[in-house]
User: What shape does this take?
Amino acid sequence: MRMWADEPRPMNNLDNREGGSDTPASEDAEPSSMAASAMDGVAAAALRSVLHRVHQAVESSGRGPHQVRVVAVSKTKPVSLIREVYDSGHRCFGENYVQEIIDKAPQLPEDIEWHFIGNLQSNKVKPLLTGVPNLAVVETVDDEKIANRLDRMVATIGRKPLKVMVQVNTSGEEYVSKSGVDPAGCVELVKHVALGCPNLEFCGLMTIGMPDYTSTPENFKTLANCRSEVCKLLGIAEEQCELSMGMSGDFELALSKWAVPMCGLDPPYSEPGSTQSSSHQLFYCAAISIMA
Assistant: This one.
């Protein structure tokens, strides 16, 4: 399950923290130092806040321990902030733009687990896969064309099978009409990925939900229903199909209403730096834009 959770930052403009141009040079050093110091730890604190909210949401569901993975979306954020969250122990990050992830990945540790969560065009598949060797998941497969392109490119460059999620348009909003398969077509697309793309590993379903980040239970129920149909088709348990859903205004609802218990998993959410195998992770909860 993916959750998009925006956490406020105490300063509005990170890039301007050095002070204005009208500040006398003799007085600039101390304010600049104080501003930089004030920013230290803000991103890591936001991550802790999200993890706390995740834990509370899971506990309130009354369903017992759950495995939750938090993916911090770092789109438009500088490498320095990503590194701060990394140094706090976090390893999973999501990016929306191909060029941005290609630029950032070489500047950061190789053990980062990158997730691509933006719309992916066919002509961007090769640079994405070759430019980010530690790309872990593409969450936005929404038609057979992009699935086939990914499958062929994985084979061409000789990398291990790539994990992918099928993106489902659960809200019916026109703005995402080209970013997400209709629920009625979800099963057929999953079937194509799972059975017709040997270099891809289907791992779950993703939805963006409502454009104002306030999805209703119906949106989440739609994705859960799609999972049931997909698992029936593939002959697998629902726990083997991850759900990526929820944003800043609704991820608690996504967790509390549609979390499915998986026995024997502890702790109830993944601590930063967790080394647990991803194959044991049912919930795929991305705290998107925790550094926003």
